[in-house]
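ok so I'm stuck.
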Amino acid sequence: MAQGSLRLGRFGDVSATLLQLQGTRGAGADRLDMALELMPLHWDLLHDARLIVWADLEVAPEGTGRLAVGPIAPGVLAFPGRGRTYAVRLDLRATLGPAQVEAIETARDGGPISLFIRAHGMVFPGAIDGQPDSSPETFWHDTEFRLKPAEWVEVLEGWGYAQGFLIQVPTLPDPSSIAAVEASKELRRAVTEMTEGRYRAAVAACRDALESAYGSSDGDLYPQLNYAVPGIRRAGKEERFWVLRRGAWAVANAAKHNDEETGDIVWERSDAQALILSVSALLQQDPPRT
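replied:
not stuck anymore, here's the structure
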């Protein structure tokens, strides 16, 4: 995992390894759990010492400035006594709301991201020869951990980002339907592709979701409408919703086939998000039953 360091005032630097990074779903807000493995560079100063850390979390998607997230719950640890040297674990925890995650994802745009832990805390020295050491030391230090996109995607998966964040991927009412299972799988794939910045693939996956749900002939239904929709005034509700589906087919086909007519189209995050939302709503309105 990512490497950083923490400077503890006169007690010197401590090597910090981001040992664990995990997203945990919550009620209304979600949790980011971080475990740091700390290894002092100056053991003679930190044997038997106690450490308490307060911090604030910031994130920095590549190419943007830092974005403030919020406070991190305090962490406490004890360094081993004299004659022993081993890394110690510091557990930290932050809380993020759905709007914060969506703002981060919009700024990240599928690329790498860094976590900044703006730490401040106190070191309480251990005793030497039974006598208390000098007074506690207060410190302030920023630690950066540069993440790979795949590491951040694992956090998003832990939050259920693809299943139910601001983009709603439906849970279809008939779990025994093969078409429903396949359509939901393709739509979740579309969200994953968008999360990782592959917007053409995200839009194309919506085309696959439509085909899984409604069959390859769905785009050619209702020939009496001639797709110019001259008969829309006489169309019923089902036919009118089909017109929406046919429009989604038209957009998704451009990404799916990527031929000389459509190869110059540049797909953006907003395109992928719009089509995912559209297909999701259509699947909820008329879920596949067979």
